[in-house]
Amino acid sequence: PGAGSGSGVASTSWRVDGGGWHSGTSVIVPAPTDHSNDGSHTIDYYSVDNVGNTETVRYAAVTIDTLPPTGAPVDPGSVLSGTVVLSDPSPTDSGAGVASVAFQYSPHGAGTWTTIGTLVAAPWSVSFDTTAVTDGQYDLREVISDAAIPANVTMIDLPGPKVIDNTPPSSAAVTAPAPGAFVGGTVSLGGAASDATSGVGQMVFKVNGTVVGTATGTPASVNWDTTSTPDGPVSVTVEAKDVAGNGPTVSSARTIIVDNHPPTVTLDDPGAAIRGTVALTTTTSSDTTQVTFQRSPAGAGTWTTISVDNTSPFSASLDTTLLADGLYDLRAVATDGAHTVNSNIRT
Asked: pTM value?
C-alpha cells in the first residue's frame, strides 16, 4: 500500500480458510499427527502502511500432508542373477504427491543399505546388475518419499532374503551305471552335481550328445530305454544348472556298452563219426566274448564242459579217447558282455 510513499508497513493480517483474522507475519496452519487437517488450505492476507493505506487482500494455497506414501514393489523372485528389474507400478501419496522412489540392497541382516537407483518420475523401475555384488544372501527394499517438507518417507522390505548367484555349479558327474557296464532294456542313469549358493536346479542327461532325460536337484536319475540305440559303446554325460539358471556345467563322459541282442553261434559239424582228437570250431556274432564247448550222452541233457575259449575265433579240441564209444550231443554256448546266451547242438 502507498507505493512510493516510503511510509513503511505498519501491520499484516492473515486468516486461514476464511476463519478469524490474526496479526503477524507468521502464519500457523496446524498439522496434527492424526491427519485430521491434511489437505489444501487457503491463506488470506493483507498489510496496512504507516499512513493507513490498506492493500487488497491477497491469498496463497498450502497443502498439509502428514500421511506417508504407499507402494507395492514387484517381487523379482527369491533367487536372482544377471540384471534384474526392480519396480513399483503405482506408488501413491494422498497429499503432496510422490517425489522419489529408490531401491536399495544390503547384505542380509547387516542393515547397511546401498542405493541401486533413485527415480523422480514414472515408470518407477531400476535395473539391478547383480554381477556387481558377491554371491550370497541380500535384503532389498523400496524407499518412497513424498513432496512434503520435510518429506514423509515409507520403506518397504521386499520378501527375502534374496539369494544372488552368478556362478555355475562347481561340479557335475555321471554316477551310474559303472564305467564299462553292459546294459540293456531300461536302465537308470544317475548323476550328481554341486552348487554352493542357490543349489542345483536341473540335471540334463545325454547319450552320445542327445538328451534322454531331465531331472531336478541332486543326486538325480532318469530312466533310459536302451533299445532306442544300436548295440555298442555309448557316451553318457550329465549337464547341471543351478537354481539361478547358471550353467550348464558339463560332466566328463562315461562309456557304457549297450547290449540288447543275444550273440549267435554255429557249431561247425565235425562229422557223423569221429575218433582221436577232433577240432571243434564255431561261427559267432561280433559281440561274442566267450564260447563254452560242451558234450552230453545223446538225448541225456547232462552237459559236461569240454573247454572255454575267450578269444575269437572260438575253438576247442575234443579228445574222444577219453570217452566211451557211443552217440553224443555236442553244443557251443556263446556269451556276450550282457551275459545273454545262445547255443547250437549237434548230435
From this structure: 0.72
